[in-house]
Design brief:
Blueprint: H1 7-11, H2 15-24, E1 36-42, H3 45-50, E2 54-62, E3 66-73, E4 95-102, E5 116-119, E6 133-139, E7 147-156, E8 159-173
Antiparallel strand pairs: 1-2, 1-8, 2-3, 3-4, 4-5, 5-6, 6-7, 7-8
Length: about 180
Amino acid sequence: MTSRRRLENLAKLPTEQLWEIFNQGKTPDFEKLKGWEFRGWNAPFFAKLMGIQKFQKGFFVKEGKVPFGYNIPQKQNAADQPWECRPSNQNPKRFGFYSVKKVEPGGVEDKHPHALILNYGDAKNSLFEGVFLRDYVVQVDPDNDDLYLGAAYIALGPARIFSNFFIIERLRQHEFQG
């Protein structure tokens, strides 16, 4: 029996290996994401310096039909420490909202056709909430609905500039409705 990969396993890998995993990933099923929050880890060293290494993402259906998501800031402690929402676990700040779509071939966002795209430009985000972010997310292993790898890009007009990888792993259910 093989052991399942976890967030901590991927967080230690170099960018080249993360690209290999990302390119072999499969398109996530939004139905398996909605109603859940995921603990997240931004892979690059600069994320720790910026205070954004740890984060949380949630997925929900907006207005009863539109796949959407959000971020929750976290206390910036070590990866082996619990994820703690800011300002608190009982009253998390939800911000940095994004739409969730399958990548459409031939569109400006078709960089990774096997991924879901988290488009921060589709929500009313400020510059500091990531209006220019486009995250492409894949399921790491076909038999593991709990672990995903994302490639974050900055959108400048039609150009998409790679920023970093991030990992998300299923954490808890939520009841947020937007």
